[in-house]
Amino acid sequence: MTFDSFLEAQSFFLWSAFGIAFIMGAVANKTNFCTMGAVSDWVNIGDTGRFRAWLLAIAVAVIGVALLEYFGLAKPGEAFPPYRAGQFLWAEHLLGGLMFGIGMTLASGCGNKCLVRIGGGNIKSIMVMLVIGVIAYYMVNPFPGGDKTIFSLMFYDWIRPLSVDLGTSQDLGALFGGDAVAMARLVIGGVIGLLLLVFVFKSSDFRGGFDNILGGLVIGLAVLAAWYVTSNVQINADDERVSLGGYYQEWDMLADSNEGKPAQARPLSPQSFTFINPMAATVSYAGKGFDKSLLTFGVMAFFGVVLGSFAWAVLSRGFRIEWFSSFGDFAAHLIGAILMGLGGTLALGCTIGQAITGISTLAVGSFLTFFAIVLGSALTMKIQYYRMVYEEEATFPKALVASLADLHLLPNALRRLDKV
């Protein structure tokens, strides 16, 4: 995909993000693809259908990226965000994932689901999105009139020193491949993907569920398509093919003026879908008067998911205005949004951005984030259930211990509440 000018290449880059995300939003709405719902179904009623759909999306993305990278058609090693960075920020992935898992449970859905709900008429999700966006923005950008971010004030001094240097890359292929990294990535990605497919389709109930299969397949293919497009858009600069990011770095040499120059180079890198950073980018884009230099892949994906979901809601006559049912409902969503903004930024992504896009790069941090998100969400649901059933008797410590015992993370002998 080679274009004669930067503006043509960037336009294709951005509109591709919108188009793929539009399909993603429509299908997520139609199939009720929801990662928080997947954990809820599994924890509360033992139904693994939507969880298997999530795993199907991961399997498709992992296998696809392994093949594309091996044949030079995807560049996850140059990704934004840098999933494969040699510094393994294990504490940030673990804490961020736990916070995000708790937050998405309190706020009734992950970042992607929040946008799908907005498209379906859920006004309270607009509040959730705005809070996530503002928190995520100030996690990495200084407050007005200062040089401090939320991250520097709350986390940097104690959590960043815990990182572990894994060398040039933290992906499984680089860690275990020796001198044959490319082949190792292909083999490891293929094995993980195939094992996931075997597990997913082992369930006869899942095999008979069209919506879950469609949702998992389309979400996985959307992530894969984004990797392909963003890795292969190039510009013909004096008979030399240059990537968008490379052109930006050589702007003064290649461009005639600053017209159309983006604000940053990083958002021009190879990437796929994630939704916490794009919420921050969209809030910034709107707050700064819709400055075209701030229009990124993530912002276009944001609008694509919302409008795709809206289109399906209208076509299916499922568009419904929804507002908070009580002050308690508002407070839970507010706290959840704050935690998602903090946790999603800390962990470098969400249930799509890390658990599908990140895992497709085989990054160790992405696997850890996925585990932490599921754990945080499952624990929150368990605790809520115990406190609802036992009411005042179920203090938070008692409910937490009982929940950990239910998840086989503590011995049953320690519980003070009977299993429900």
Number of domains: 1
Low-confidence stretches: none
Tally of individual helices:
20
- Along the chain, the helix and strand elements come as EHHHEHHHHHEHHHHEEHHHHHHHH
Rounded radius of gyration (Å): 21 Å
Largest sheet geometry: 3 strands, mixed
What does this structure look like?
Strand 4 and strand 5 (240-243) form a beta hairpin. This protein has one domain (2-414). It is globular and about 75 Å long. The chain has a three-stranded mixed beta sheet with strand order 1-4-5. It has a two-stranded antiparallel ribbon with strand order 2-3. The protein has 20 helices and five strands. It has helices spanning 6-31, 35-45, 49-70, 90-106, 111-119, 124-140, 150-154, 156-159, 172-176, 181-201, 204-207, 210-232, 244-249, 251-254, 276-287, 297-315, 327-346, 353-358, 364-390, 396-406; strands at residues 2-3, 87-88, 164-165, 234-237, 240-243. The longest helix has 27 residues, at 364-390. It is mainly alpha-helical and 420 residues long.
Please describe the topology of this protein.
Elements: E1 2-3, H1 6-31, H2 35-45, H3 49-70, E2 87-88, H4 90-106, H5 111-119, H6 124-140, H7 150-154, H8 156-159, E3 164-165, H9 172-176, H10 181-201, H11 204-207, H12 210-232, E4 234-237, E5 240-243, H13 244-249, H14 251-254, H15 276-287, H16 297-315, H17 327-346, H18 353-358, H19 364-390, H20 396-406
Parallel strand pairs: 1-4
Antiparallel strand pairs: 2-3, 4-5
